[in-house]
Write a structure and sequence with these properties.
Chain lengths: ~325, ~525
Amino acid sequence: MGYYILKRLLAMVPTLLGVAVLIFILLRVVPGDVVEARFLTQGSQFQSQELMDIERKKLGLDQPLWKQFTTWMAGLARFDFGLSMWTGSPITEEIKLRFALSLQLAIMASTIATLLAIPLGILAAVKQDTWVDYAVRVFSIAGLATPSFWLGILMILTMLIVFKWVPPMVFTPFWVDPWQNLVQLIWPALAVGYRYSAVGTRMMRSAMLEVLREDYIRTARAKGLWTKLILSRHALKNAILPVLTIISLEFAFLLGGLVVTEQVFNLNGLGMLFVEAIARRDYTLTQALVMLVATVFLLVNFFVDIAYAWLDPRIRYR
Amino acid sequence: MRDTRRLLALAFAFLLALPLHAQTPRNGGELVFPVPSEPPSYDGHREETFGLIHPIAPFYNTLLRVDPNDKGGTKPYPSLAESWTVSPDGKTYTFKLRKGVKFHDGSEMTSKDVKASYDKIIFPAPGVGSTRKGQYADVEKVEAPDALTVVFRLKEKSGSFISSLLSPYNFIYKAEILAKDPHWYEKNIMGTGPFTFVEHVKGSHVVGKKNPNYWDKGKPYLDGFRAIFISSSSAQVAAVRGERAHIQFRGFTPKDRDTLKEALGDKITVQESAWDCILMVAINHEKKPFDDKRVRRALSLALDRHTGSKALSQIAIVKHVAGVQVPGTPFATPPEELNKLAGYWTDAAKSRAEAKRLLKEAGVPEGFSFTFKNRGIPMPYEPLGVWMIDQWRQVGLNVKQEVIEAAAYYGVIRKGDFEAAMDFQCGYIVEPDLDMYKFLSTDRNPANYGRYKDPVLDQLYDQQSRETNVEKRKQIVRQFEKRVLDEEAHYLMTLQWHRIIPHSSKVKGWTITPSHYLNNTLDTVWLTQ
């Protein structure tokens, strides 16, 4: 197992290197750069090539691409992401606050999704083809069909029209004011969590149905074991594997992928930062964010694989 | 009897005093406003976005400002300079500064600071970027003969120099700091403005609090302000509707205004104005058949601006039929005269018939196809693009629209890789020098994407720029306008933007202007509760 863990960890290095090369090239292929985005898009009457040249020099954009790449890689090796080309501030500073918000939202949404998906999925499987199953299926299919941002808009409009109230527009960290923090984040967490639970519920139901038809479950029943015990000890442990994968990957996605939901609730998260960084051609910030998300995905995958081994002893790694 | 009269007189006087009292500025409160974008840096001399002006301007003063009560947004008003004189030859401007103005660090503001700030804008040191350097090309030098006098010496007399000093971006910085590090103000804030800096949480908000030592005694009225960065327009509307914010200073759409008014009734006050922003069509003179002015005129004649204005103003932030100046402003051409220009005729059928005739004469076949490049921004690029394509279709042109992502757009347009493309201009003040610079020959202004050279036009520009007699200058502006929009049809104007600010009725002391860059110092703003 130790060898496997080491091997998986080392395998991350070439993957991350590949991501780094890809994002570096892709960003430079796309037309426009940060200087154009900054000085040509505001409809100004006086545009100066001299000013643009000064800014490009200041940002190192006048350097050959290989030099820009090696400078960036040397920084990465020291865990130094450099400065944002748009604001000039350290990238760690730009990401820090947003990461805290996105992480908390991802945790809250994942918790809501897990708390809904696992019991509902089991219930639907156990009560297959009864009204309970149908109700769960309708609930989960509605969740799949409803984009979380749209649900968010509905929530905001309902709160505005019925209660003449909207959630706070400014993020307050949990450790500063837990109540304010939860009042702001619970709504997007519910909107995202519901959508995300729908996938889990469907997966949980089908995996559970499959496992419940296995021979070892029939044997357990024949032995006269309690249904509760059969479900929790024998069925759930095996059925939960695909659900775990989905929940984990969704968690990684939530960290940087909630762009529209963040816009709807005005959340200062990584998703919005990502889109702004791309729109502004902030190469250094975009590169750092891509590397961050790629690392999170790799780590989540890594932990899922470890969890697989722990949950299912039949899985053997060499 | 006499007592009763006295009582009645007192009661009458009290009633008369009531509305006056209601309009007396009240001290206190925090103004909360959403800002649709965030400042890239804090340096006004370097940036060119309302994302900087809205949250950062309250920390600074400028030498002059636009009168905060002038709806036209063009009237010069004293700020750090309390008065000024112009020499008889029109080349020397002398400004007397206020006494006792202090920076937020407690040090006194003097002419050295004004000189250092303007030197940074006009003659930036190597490696220092100044966005508005080109605007002051006529300035020979800035002098500070004594602590309270600043002198600007010009190479040529100018009809617009005072207007150029009204720029809300020209913050006065501290000379000592600039001498040590000309980039210091990119990441730090320290001015003489009515508010002092408290915090900027990246991506979230900027907070300012009342400057107790502000030179304009009794101001500001607010205890502070909070600028919240909200990029989504629906979230901005929700913030105002849910009374989490008082005002958004850039502007809302007609639909947003109606929604807010319907939901909040008297709690919302709406201020509207023509907006000093306009989308134009750059026609690439280097591509055939657009090198032929008959074709360019036909493109303009095809647009029924008057009907378009009525329809589009219902759904988009555009409204006014305009020439090269914002309608209703001092140098704008009156409608009856403007309507004589090609594309401005009130008889659309006649205009289209003339467009078809010109196209035929120029050898452009029926159904001629070309690509119109548009910028990937929904409002108002999208509705205007759709409208124009429909208008051109009605004179037999088959136009394909290609939408390019916003940040990549100007990279494409600058290379000249287009036939016709949407172009954009937005100003901080309505001033011919600023608004007409766009149309100068491409060797004088690389931002002229029409890629033409027109020495006659350049000469007219210079003439009006040097003319200090307003009436004479107006006449030259008219000639310039006729040439650029009618005779040569170098550029096509679409419709002038229309600025709509629905704000909480609690907000007082703020007047809309045609520019969303103006009136953001917040010193005159107060809240009723």
